[in-house]
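Progress note, sequence design subtask.
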């Protein structure tokens, strides 16, 4: 069984930030990522509120720079899926698809994933007009009609991105006003390609080989109408990827990991950082801060364990 001091699970901004700090502190660290480093940020077409980039930066470019920086400090990044986490005395054993690893501490930075609408046709037509990433799939809808479901920052920003390709973008929101920040709202309202469908929800996604239409219901009088679209992009919130630790650490009612200000969970040696953590704001800037704090807290914990 391989032994190391620290294992970071997840290669998004929190995990990479933790890796940079841990590697610079000469802690024997391995970062495990089951997909592409960068997390959900790589699906963001433009990030304009991350300090240091006056004109903004694309999500993929920002995360590529973070990964390069982490590797420059010799952080070991492996592509592996963690199956089980098992505390064993002063060690924590991780079962992965590439073998077992023993660590003195771990940082859980597994992030979140998009919520599903849970309506008929969503599963059947995923990848055939149903998408959760406008940046990934927007170009397939050039000259077509698409819908975006949601009213937060992600939904409205992606709706604006889709206007680069689609001839018409319908934003379907169950309330009569958006939850997105004011500046994003103003840009969307000024975009002639965007049409808002207020007080409405999607009851069904219809189509054969591809999406053809939506059944939209007004939540006030429950009347339904048919909306002809070629695609639908769903942005109705996120759920935490916390199943790995649900029996190990304290979670809130939504499944987010509860930590203190130093990213410590209620289980010694297990830290959490980024969107997986219970907190007010989930942004790249807060994820990066979480990762840095978690790495420093883990370093202090490992030092204390050596002295005990």
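Output:
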């Amino acid at each position: 069984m391989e032994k190391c001091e620290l294992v970071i699970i997840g290669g998004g901004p929190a995990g990479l930030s933790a890796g940079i700090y841990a590697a610079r502190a000469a802690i024997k660290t391995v970062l495990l990522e089951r997909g592409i480093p960068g997390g959900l940020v790589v699906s963001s077409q433009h990030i304009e509120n991350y300090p240091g980039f006056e004109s903004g930066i694309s999500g993929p470019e920002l995360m590529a720079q973070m990964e390069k920086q982490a590797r420059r400090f010799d952080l070991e990044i492996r592509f592996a899926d963690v199956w089980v986490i098992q505390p064993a005395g002063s060690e924590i054993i991780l079962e992965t698809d590439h073998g077992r690893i023993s660590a003195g501490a771990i940082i859980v930075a597994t992030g979140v994933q998009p919520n599903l609408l849970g309506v008929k046709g969503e599963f059947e037509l995923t990848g055939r007009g149903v998408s959760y990433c406008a940046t990934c799939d927007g170009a397939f809808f050039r000259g077509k009609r698409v819908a975006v479901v949601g009213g937060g920052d992600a939904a409205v920003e992606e709706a604006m991105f889709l206007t680069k390709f689609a001839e018409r973008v319908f934003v379907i929101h169950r309330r009569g006003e958006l939850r997105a920040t004011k500046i994003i709202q103003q840009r969307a309202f000024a975009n002639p390609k965007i049409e808002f469908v207020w007080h409405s929800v999607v009851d069904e996604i219809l189509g054969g080989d591809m999406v053809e239409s939506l059944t939209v219901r007004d939540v006030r009088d429950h009347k339904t109408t048919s909306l002809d679209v070629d695609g639908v992009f769903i942005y109705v919130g996120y759920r935490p990827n916390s199943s790995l630790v649900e029996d190990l650490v304290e979670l809130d009612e939504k499944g987010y990991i509860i930590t203190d200000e130093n990213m410590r969970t209620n289980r010694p040696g297990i830290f959490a950082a980024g969107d997986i953590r219970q907190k007010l704001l989930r942004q790249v800037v807060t994820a990066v801060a979480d990762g840095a704090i978690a790495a420093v807290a883990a370093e202090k914990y490992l030092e204390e364990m050596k002295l005990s």
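The domain at 2-113+238-307 is CATH 3.50.50.60 (FAD/NAD(P)-binding domain). Work on this subtask will continue into the next period as scheduled.
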